[in-house]
Fold this sequence. Notes:
With about 110 residues, the chain is mainly alpha-helical. It has helices at about 1-15, 20-40, 55-80, 80-85, 90-105.
Amino acid sequence: MIYFIEIQASIMKRYPAPLSLTTWVTLVGAAQSAVFTMIVEHNLSSWRIGLNIHLFSILYGGIVIAGFIIYIQLWCIEKKGPVFVTVFNPLSTILVAIFAYFVFGEKLYLGR
């Protein structure tokens, strides 16, 4: 992840359009995920998605949330540099655990 943010910082110097860069990063990530999933998951029935909440949650998580996160990272890289962004990466794991505890009622265990 650290190398990815350093690459983003060098790209931002030459390509200062964060919205289109966010689109490209998200599309390449989706393509890589699809190829990896095709290698791992051979059952074609798991690829079928109906026009229901599953499709909308995938689109929302993949387009809106991932795009927003990458855009915020690019903005922070532009303003403060790549070190500032990588410092807060461990904090995001802690925030996800706290959010899951309070919103979804997941149990937290020490050490995992």
